[in-house]
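the two lines:
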Amino acid sequence: MATTYFSDVVKEKIGAVQDYSLLAGRSISNLFAQPRYYADTLLQADLIGVGSLPIVVLIGFFTGAVLALQTASTLQQFGSLSLTGKLVALSMVRELGPVLTGILVSGRNSSGMASELGSMKVTEQIDAMRAMGVDPTKKLVTPRVIATVVMLFFLSIISDLVGLAGGFVISYLLLGLDPNQYWTTAYQALRFGDVFMGLGKPVMFGFIISSIGCYYGMTAKGGTEGVGRATTQAVVSASVLIVVSDFFLTKLLMEFFQY
Amino acid sequence: MGFEQPVLDQISFELVRGETKVVLGEAGTGKTLLLKLALGLLKPDAGRITVLGEQISAMREQDMYALRRQIGMVFQESALFDSLTVEENVAYRLIEETGMITDKIHARVLEALEFVELGHTSSLFPSELSGGMRRRVAIARAIITQPEILLYDSPTGGLDPVTSNTIIELVVKQRDVYQTGSLLVTHRLQDAFTMASHYFDRKLNKMVPLEDGSARNMHTTFLILRDHKIIFEGTAPELLRSHDPYIREYLS
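prediction for all of em together
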């Protein structure tokens, strides 16, 4: 009995991974097939990109500021306060900018996608769409995936920049660092590998956020309670996957760029 | 996990062009499932389903979209897109082709909405309509492209008798005016018999009962499901003559 239960659970999990992989694959292969829904993609880009901008700016600024504040005391012990700009730049661009923006957008949009598509699923609107000859993966999933990937890329750049500005405000006003020194060390610290890492991560995180959000939405069942469950699972899974994949991606890129 | 017992077993029937087949049965006998299988929304575990000459049980999902455009489906809970207006809902298939509502599409939407006598609701949202009106909008959405086949999933379920009658009148109108073949799932016996005993009079623009002794072909047959199988298939008079104890009880 216990064995049957165990094998059923395993089968269910493997089935879920298979369904997710198929959906993720379709979301990409749809890029090369007609019809393409440009208007839906633009609408999603506005919702995800412009909608997340204020919160990304706010979080980015204060992350950079606190980074400068925290590291300054340690750097001061070694007499290297002048390296604050370098430290903020490397931390923001390589790690904190993409990851924090990813987690923010995941909380905001992965949940939104899961609940929107989930509501459509449980009220048979997805089936109605299929019944009318419209492919829901083309109409609903691919526009969200493209919009999230593109927007997260730019949001991460903005977050990096605002974070550097936050670090600068603290360095200049509280630590008394020379503005020129801050920006020069920050600029000179960044190598091609750092920027590549900082810009590559949001592409992957954007794909994780949107495909996970859409997957949980498209497979929601069990009425409003099911939609709630799908929403929570989407945010949790997307956030965990972002952090875990960040580690592996960082390791891989570090090997590649020989850090 | 998993259902050991198949929901539908050894089901075999044919829907002739222009014919309406009323699928009857208790709740949970797989009536809705039958429609979803016919539309390819679900796949059978075994067997073959042929729709409009294409064997859909062997088709990939992405190949089925073109075929589905020739079939209209009215869902049990209407399944209207709640973020779109009535006009956008009804025009959905047409907008898919052109990308926007043109004057021509607008005219066709109005025509479809007039057919269900809801021409004044085009700018409203589904949440602003009553249950019966939503059902009629769903019918308008299904018929706008004049599909070859219509699938109605309990179109009168949960509605009052007067509204139910309005819906059945629309179904009869579609059957007699456009001669569209259809599968109609219902658990309301009176709907089925209304369909078999009434026809749509174009001059009077309403549904009228068949005169006694009329030899008019009503193009309506019945199919009764019980315990996962078909227990009856035939016309209304044949159904009334049946000696099957379950059917006798069902009819009483």
